[in-house]
Amino acid sequence: MNLEGKVAIVTGGSRGIGASIARRYGAEGARVAVVAHTNLDKARAVAGEIVSAGGEAQAFQADVAKVSECARLADAVIAAFGTVDILVNNAGIFIAATIEETTEEIWDAQMDINLKGSFFMAKAVVPAMKSTGRGKIINVTSIAGVGGFPDSGAYCSSKGGQVIMVKALCLELAKYRINVNSLAPGNIRTDMNAPFRADPDYNAHQKSLTPAGVDHLDAEDLTGAAVFLASADSDMVHGANLLVDGGWAAW
Ligand code: NAD
Predict the structure, then answer these.
(1) 193 burial class (0-12, 13-18, 19+ CB within 10 angstroms)?
(2) pTM beyond 0.90, yes or no
(3) CB hemisphere CA count around 87 (13 angstroms)
(4) For ligand 1, what atom is nearest to the CA of residue 39?
(5) Ligand 1 centroid, distance to 175 Cα (angstroms)
(6) Ligand 1 neighbours by CB, cut-off 6 Å
(7) How far is Cα 5 from Cα 158, in angstroms, rounded to an integer?
(8) What's the pLDDT tens digit per position in 17-53?
(9) Is 176 noted as a catalytic residue in this protein?
(10) How many Å lie between the centroid of ligand 1 and the Cα of residue 92?
(11) DSSP 144
(12) Alpha helices (runs of H) in the chain, residue ranges in sequence order
């Protein structure tokens, strides 16, 4: 197992990509803090699956858009597990909107959760990581952070911000043996895009643009890269944005 005994926080861990990463981290020996936004029962269910499979996990609740909640979450995980070795900033939202439709609320919601939440969750765990002399911070970004998408100006801005954030933070934190990197999913089959996937033409379009020949990847396709970025195998990987997109961004 690659993450034996490590303490990992996975935000948005109650479903989708976060739940898949949390389950895989549990299977790799990590003690996993599965974080829900509001529905603690869903996080408890994922933590329960990890425990049933022989791992260690606990459910937590926090709204990462609020700086005070980020600090409270980090404190609660440290109280429960003793430290934090790995942070996966996976919590995120996508609101499709043209520039004309994008209100201040739509802009702020995506910035606050996707970008501000990632920064202040990192800030909340850095003291523990500095004190142990190691740490792994992983932003779940997107192909929408390296290329543009229509009707997604605020979302792309938030994801591009996450990508450049890891470069800035790695310049500050690499000397403390804290690795800050991104994992950039392509189009993944989750609740986030379920309404779009109901349209066969949409799926055909996605498939035509994915060199691997699939319309969507599964959340489990990301978990190997998520383990790599959390493990000692990536100790000299700093400031990277690892694409797991079936080749989408290669065009
Ligand atoms: P999802 O909607 O299934 O999961 C998002 C998670 O974030 C949920 O658990 C939700 O509760 C949590 N969350 C939302 N707001 C929160 C808040 N304020 N505080 C704490 N948690 C909050 O979507 P997903 O597809 O699993 O997305 C996970 C991440 O992957 C997101 O950052 C998303 O932008 C990114 N991503 C997804 C895709 C895709 O195709 N699905 C592609 C690229 C990137």
Answers:
(1) middle
(2) yes
(3) 32
(4) 11
(5) 30
(6) 11-12, 14-18, 37, 62-65, 90-94, 113, 140, 142, 185, 187-188, 190-193
(7) 33
(8) 999 999 999 999 999 999 999 999 999 999 999 999 9
(9) no
(10) 4
(11) G
(12) 16-27, 40-52, 67-81, 104-110, 117-132, 153-173, 194-197, 200-208, 223-230
